[in-house]
Design brief:
With 122 residues, this protein is mostly beta strands. The chain has no helices and eleven strands. The strands form two sheets. Strands 2, 4, 5, 6, 9, 10 and 11 form a seven-stranded mixed β-sheet that branches. A four-stranded antiparallel β-sheet has the order 1-3-8-7, with no helix packed on it.
Length: 122
């Protein structure tokens, strides 16, 4: 079982990036994105349920980020628009093998990708 995140990079404030997460080995009930900025704890960004289109976002990204998934390809995406310098972080995709009904705690996620760096310049 593996999660592979990609799509990070350097972008100017106001720009956009699209992160991808490829899941291999199985499908997951819940897929999510977290991020960790230097010197800060890892924080929840967004999640999507695998069986139907239910999404949830942190207040800090709501209205700017969109999570989506392609079940046929076993992929999850995070479209990030109107990026701000405070969005700079390493972004991780994560997965729950069973829906814990708790989505914002990283302790509830069983599998993690390697992280992809997003840097937003001002």
């Amino acid at each position: 079982v593996q999660l592979q995140a990609s799509g990070g990079g350097l972008v100017q404030a106001g720009g956009s990036l699209r992160l991808s997460c490829a899941a291999s080995g199985r499908t997951f009930s819940v897929m999510g994105w977290f991020r960790q900025a230097p010197g800060k704890e890892r924080e929840f960004v967004s999640r999507i349920l695998w069986s139907y289109t239910s999404t949830y976002y942190s207040d800090s990204v709501k209205g700017r980020f969109t999570i989506s998934r392609d079940n046929a390809k076993n992929m999850v995406y995070l479209q990030m628009n109107s990026l701000r310098p405070e969005d700079t972080a390493v972004y991780y995709c994560a997965a729950q093998s069973a829906d814990s009904k708790r989505y914002t705690s990283d302790l509830m996620y069983d599998y993690w990708g390697q992280g992809t760096q997003v840097t937003v310049s001002s």
